[in-house]
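Please, does this match?
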Amino acid sequence: MDSTLKSHTMKKQLIIGFLLFVLACQLHAANTLKIGQYQVLPNTNFVVQLIAENSDPFVAFQVDIPIPTGLNYVDGSAVLNASRISGHALSASLLDGNILRLIGYSVGNTTFIGNSGSLVSFSLKSGTIPATYALALNQPVFSNSQSNNILTGSSNGSVTVLAPNISLSISGLDFGRVPLGNTPIQNIQITNNGNSNLNIAGLNFNDSQFTTTTSADFSIAANSSVSIPVKFSPTAKGTLAKQLQIASNDPDQQIVSINLNAVAYAVNEIHVGNISGASSTTKTLEFTLNNMEAYTGFQFDLNLPSPLTYAAGTAQLFRSQDQTVSVNQLNAQTLRVLVFSAGNKNFIGTSGKVLSLDFSLFGISGYYTIGISNVIIANTNGENILSASYSGSLQITSPDIDAPTQLNFGDVSVLSKSTKTLRIYNYGQEPLIINQLLFSNSCFKSSQILPTTVPKSGFLDVSVELTDTIEGSITSTLKISSNDPDENPFTVQLSGNAFIPNYLFLNNLTFIQGESKSVAVEVQNVESFVALQFDLSYPSGFTPDLNGISLTSRKQDQVLAAIALSATSLRVLVYSPGQKTFSGNSGPILNIPFKAEESILLGKYNLIFANTLMSNAKSENVLYSATNGILNVTQNTLYPIIEKGVIQIYPNPTTDNFHITGFEGKATLKLTDIGGNELFAKQISNNETISISNLLKGVYIVKVITTEGNAELKIIRK
C-alpha cells in the first residue's frame, strides 16, 4: 500500500473514533433536578429537599416551584446544602401566585461540588385538608461556566397530608309533630372523606329526650361511612330546637353540630265518622274523641254537604258526666255543636264515642266530605288542648232515572191507534219507584200499572198510546214522577201526526208477451171526494189504450180526460161538473188498458204515480198517499219445451262469440251463470252473433224463449 494513502487512512480512523467518543459522552451525560414524595401530618412543618444529579459541572441553577393551596411556604427557610457549595449564594423569593423562585449562583463562576445529593432545602407547613398535593418544578435551569443550560431532565414530587375529614349527610333532623309516647327514629350518616382513620370521641345531646344506641367512641376508616340512629322519646309537650354535637380528630372540624327539631304533643283529637245510606233514609253520624289529657267539653262547626239535613233533637252524649249538648243550625251548610260541663267535670275515659247526631239523607248518589272546623277541646283551665281534628264522609246511594227525552209516533191514522215503547232506565244504586205518568194531552195515555219499581241497573218498558180523531200534528209532555232525588219529574216530549187515510193505489198485474190487460186504479177513502188527477209513468214495451180508459160504477156525473205526456207517461183527470162525490169508500175508480208488446223482455216493471190529487167539494186535496204498481212479464207457460237439437248454439266451446239458430222471428235470450244468476237478457234474431268476451272462463246457461216454446242449453267459454 502507498505510504501517503496509508497515512490518510489512519487520520480518518482517528477522527471517526474521536467523534464517537464525544457522542458517547453526550449520550451518557445526566444532569437532572428532582423533588421526592412526602407524607406529613396536618398543621406540620416539614423540609423539602431539591436533589441535583449531575454528570457535568454547573455554576448556577434556577427553578420555580408553585406552592399548592393547602400548603404554606415557611419564610426564610430556604438554604443551600453546605457540602455542595463553594462561595455560592441563594436567592429565595415568593412570587405572585404563591410561586417559590430559587436561584443559586457563583459570583466567581465556581462550580457546585459533587455529582449528587441535596442542592437546596426549604420548609413548608401542611394544612388540615387531607389530600395529595403536587410539587412541580417549572422552568428549571443548570448553567455551566459558558452560561449554557446543561439540564437534561427534571422530576416532580408530591406531598400527602394524612388526616381524617368528617362529612355529614344532613345538617339537621326534623322529627315534626310527635305524640307523647311515640319514639320515632331518624338516621344521620357520618362519612370520612380523608385518608386516615376518623376517630369519633363523643356523641353529645343537649336534651335527654334525644338518644342513640351507637357507642360514643369508634373509628371510621378512610372513605367509609357509619349510620347513626337518633331516637326521639318525648316526655312532655313542647317545641324543641336542640343539638347533637359530634367530637372527632378531624383537624379543622373537631366539633360538628346537628340541629334537632321536634314538636311533642299530647294526642287530643276528634274524629267525624262516616255515613253510608240510601237517599230518603235517616242515618246516625258518630263522633269519637281520643285524649291523653282530661277535658270537660268541646265545640266545633260541622260543614254539611247538601244531601245531609240535621234531625233536630237527636243529639246524644257518651262518656259524659254532667255535660250538656247544644246544636244550632248557623246556615244551610253549617251546624254548630257546643258541649260543656256546668260543674267543670271531665269526660270519662281516654277514647271512644262521645256524640251522635241523626241526619236525613236526600240527594244524588256519590261521595261527599263532612268537614269539621273551629274545633276546641277544653280542659278545666279553659285551655284548648286540641291536637288534631279529622273530617268524615258521606256515601249516598240513590235511584237515577234516565229515558229518551223525545218520543215521536210519526203518522197515525185517525181510524186507529199507535203504540210506542218508552224504555225507562235506572242507573242508580237503589230501586227506582215510579209513582205517576202525567200526560198534558189526553190523546196520549198508558196502561202501565202504578206505582211500579225498576231495580237498580235495570229498566222498564212502558207502552204509550196515541189516539186522535182530528187530523193534524199532536204534541204533549209526559212527566214521570219518581223517587229520583234530582230528576223528579222526568220530562219526555211526545209528538205525532194524525191523518185521514185516503189512499190511491194501483193493482199489480202479470202479463204474457203480446197480452193486453186493464190496470185498475183504486181509491180507499174515509172522506168524500169529487175529483181525481194523476200522472202515470210506465215502462217502454207497454202501450196504453188512452181511448179505452173507463170509469167504474163508483162514478156519478164524473167526466174523464186522458192525454199522453210522453212515450212512457200519461195524465188522467176525473172531475164532476155537478160537484158530486164518488160513491163508496173502496174499490176501483177507473181502468187503464195496457198491452205488453211481443218484444218486451221478461221481468218486473214499475208503474209510478206523480202529481197526485184527490179533491173534495171544497177543492181541498184530501189524498194521504199514493202507492205505485208492478207489472210482471212472464213467459207463456202454454208453449212447450222445444225438443233437444232444434235450437243449437255454435261454436261450443267458444272463446269470445257464439251463434243461435233453429227458430223463426224474434226470441228472448237470457244468459245466467251455473248458479242461476242472470248476467244479461236481450231480444235476438236467428243466427245472431252473441258476444261473451267480457265473461270469465267457465260454463254458462243459455235460455231461449220463442213463441213456439223454450229451450235451455249450456255454453262453455274457454
The two ends are 117 Å apart (CA to CA). Helices lie at 3-28. Residues 26 and 378 are 102 Å apart (CA to CA).
